[in-house]
């Protein structure tokens, strides 16, 4: 086959027309033979769509396509080999083969059809690789049973109600400890190892899979011919585990197992990525896809971008283009693979902010990356109000469009926005209200100090040692506490701040919301202060806790601790010139300005350029101005708004 002329694509000229694969029957060791046929999408025969991870270009394999050799990635080749029937033709669709990847014009047109392709397919076949992979390890044949059993152990809960989730989390942990004492199956002692093996597979990190499974009538995950898993079973389990905090004791259990394994002990300062860290990320990404499935008919493209920021793309332009089928409402853009990455990001931002009359996307600017390396620098020709979508690795404070808005720092009106003729400057209406003055040490700075190698990988954001991580967390809380109240008072056991100040500090340490941007109740805010006092108490024996203390710690870990860490990983605590508490971008410094923009949910930190314009450092939380108080006070005092120029 090596000397034959390779298969050449016939151009698609008719609108809404696709190619379908007809794969010849065969067994495991037979060569793969396919034919590609053009068909109008609206009258296409029944077909199944394949979702898979492309992999690198090194492992190319050849198939026979319409009698000619055609090269493809190893992953798709293996998937086709396994998915073909032994005795009849199977009709399939796979992007790498059905779209001429060398033709950017065809690729742009076909990408617009992909939402229709995946929603019209009778089912989506997800190919995760062979059962025993030399890199990612084996996936046991009983993995689907493990997933179904875990799902059955989770209670039903209202994920739009922060108080209900907190109550269900506490009840679940109490029930688990009771069942453990009775020697019965429980969520904490469940055997998660098969799912760990599954989640190591790279498919879960690929951004295109969001659309591919979210739009599917039915999606089945395949690992070789041995494992078949219903996508919705895995998605509901991952979502429940994350929402109820069950992934935290699971993480701790895995880490302790690893620490106790003599042949796998690692010096945490060696810079080696944690073995289980990708598993945690995969669990979070599954939850993100499930949220897309729930809300996509009422969501905007900005919601999609915010929800899928941890996914990876081979082509950076696909951080936008891979989501075009998911925005049910609001403005959109057309895919253009002839445009540069910077142009795509800038056009997307203008469309979403100016045409969409929304400042949500500004919360992602200039980027939301924890660690910066020479290999991952921000695109130089982007204005700071345009997010570099390649670098988004931190949650944002703004709410999804499909959820009730948590904050109204810029009031309840619409933003007043325009862009300069050269598309370099964004004009906003707003008001400068404060400046940061005193700063606590951020958690990121402490992580880098403890493990300098994390600068090389955003994934390695945690210490392999849970004990060291806990001590670092306590040091971080202490730094914020001392910044807020002063070193002398922080060391004074008799010092008790006024209740209003306590509530302000507690709200600021959690940015006042949970992981779905539900505003926390006063009871939950009080829990945060109690938790911080417990963490900072030198007499609290947290390492050798009793069973009852373990329950308390589990509840804190699942609710309060997560509320504190969710949005503050990418910020640092500060006290402003006006004495307000805030969580502001990591690179903020004295001289920066805090502003509220009309129609913006949250305040922003800007840096003067010296020429009348400002660069955007990012969104922030400033207690006491999150519900429009600053604009109301300005209006009452007759202080006019001003035009703020962002470049």
UniProtKB/TrEMBL annotation:
Transmembrane segments: none annotated. Residues 47-212 form the Heterokaryon incompatibility domain. It holds the Pfam family HET. Signal peptide: none annotated. This is Heterokaryon incompatibility domain-containing protein. It comes from Bionectria ochroleuca. The lineage of its organism: Eukaryota, Fungi, Dikarya, Ascomycota, Pezizomycotina.
């Amino acid at each position: 086959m090596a000397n034959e002329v390779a298969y050449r694509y016939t151009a698609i000229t008719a609108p809404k027309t696709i190619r379908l694969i007809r794969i010849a029957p065969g067994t495991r060791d037979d060569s793969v033979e396919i034919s590609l046929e053009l068909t109008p999408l609206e009258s296409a025969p029944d077909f199944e769509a394949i979702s898979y991870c492309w992999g690198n270009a090194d492992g190319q394999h050849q198939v026979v396509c319409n009698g000619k050799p055609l090269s493809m990635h190893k992953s798709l080749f293996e998937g086709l080999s396994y998915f073909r029937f032994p005795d009849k033709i199977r009709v399939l669709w796979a992007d790498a083969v059905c779209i001429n990847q060398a033709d950017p014009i065809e690729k742009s047109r076909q990408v617009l059809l992909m939402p229709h392709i995946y929603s019209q397919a009778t089912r989506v076949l997800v190919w995760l690789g062979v059962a025993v992979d030399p890199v990612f390890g084996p996936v046991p044949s009983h993995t689907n049973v493990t997933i179904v059993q875990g799902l059955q152990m989770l209670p039903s809960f209202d994920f739009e109600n922060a108080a209900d989730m907190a109550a269900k989390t506490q009840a679940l942990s109490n029930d688990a400890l009771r069942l453990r004492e009775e020697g019965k199956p429980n969520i904490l002692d469940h055997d998660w190892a098969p799912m760990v093996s599954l989640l190591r597979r790279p498919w879960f990190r690929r951004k295109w899979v969001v659309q591919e499974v979210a739009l599917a009538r039915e999606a089945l995950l395949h690992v070789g011919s041995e494992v078949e898993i219903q996508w919705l079973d895995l998605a509901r389990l991952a979502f429940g585990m994350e929402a109820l905090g069950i992934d935290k004791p699971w993480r701790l259990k895995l880490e302790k197992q690893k620490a106790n394994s003599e042949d796998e002990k690692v010096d945490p300062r060696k810079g080696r990525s944690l073995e289980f860290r990708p598993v945690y990320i995969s669990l979070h990404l599954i939850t993100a896809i499930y949220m897309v499935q729930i809300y996509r008919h009422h969501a905007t493209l900005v919601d999609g971008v915010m929800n899928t920021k941890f996914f990876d793309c081979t082509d950076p332009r696909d951080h936008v283009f891979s989501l075009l089928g998911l925005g049910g409402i609001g403005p959109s853009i057309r895919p253009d693979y002839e445009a540069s990455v910077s142009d795509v990001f800038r056009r997307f931002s203008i469309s979403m902010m100016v045409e969409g009359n929304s400042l949500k996307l500004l919360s992602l600017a200039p980027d939301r990356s924890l660690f910066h390396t020479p290999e991952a620098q921000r695109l130089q020709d982007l204005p700071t109000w345009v997010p570099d979508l390649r670098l988004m690795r931190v949650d944002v404070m703004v709410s999804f469009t499909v959820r009730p808005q948590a904050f109204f720092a810029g009031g309840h009106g619409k933003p007043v926005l325009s862009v300069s003729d050269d598309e370099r400057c964004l004009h906003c209406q707003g008001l400068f209200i404060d400046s940061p003055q005193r700063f606590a040490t951020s958690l990121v700075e402490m992580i880098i100090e403890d493990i300098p190698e994390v600068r090389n990988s955003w994934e390695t954001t945690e210490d392999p040692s849970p004990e060291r991580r806990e001590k670092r967390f306590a040091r971080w809380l202490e730094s914020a506490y001392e910044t807020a109240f002063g070193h002398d008072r922080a060391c004074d056991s008799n010092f008790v701040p006024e209740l209003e100040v306590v509530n302000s500090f507690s709200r600021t340490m959690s940015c006042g919301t949970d992981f779905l941007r539900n505003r926390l109740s006063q009871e939950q805010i009080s829990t945060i202060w109690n938790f911080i006092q417990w963490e900072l108490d030198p007499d609290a024996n947290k390492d050798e806790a009793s069973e009852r203390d373990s329950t308390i710690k589990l509840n804190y870990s699942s609710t309060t601790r997560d509320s504190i860490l969710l949005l503050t990983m990418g910020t640092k605590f500060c006290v402003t010139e006006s004495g307000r508490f805030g969580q502001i971008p990591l690179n903020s410094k004295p001289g920066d300005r805090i502003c509220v923009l009309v129609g913006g949910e949250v305040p922003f930190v800007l840096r003067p350029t010296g020429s009348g314009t400002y660069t955007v450092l990012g969104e922030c939380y400033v207690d006491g101005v999150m519900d429009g108080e600053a604009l109301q006070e300005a209006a009452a005092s007759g202080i006019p708004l001003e035009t703020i120029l962002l470049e």
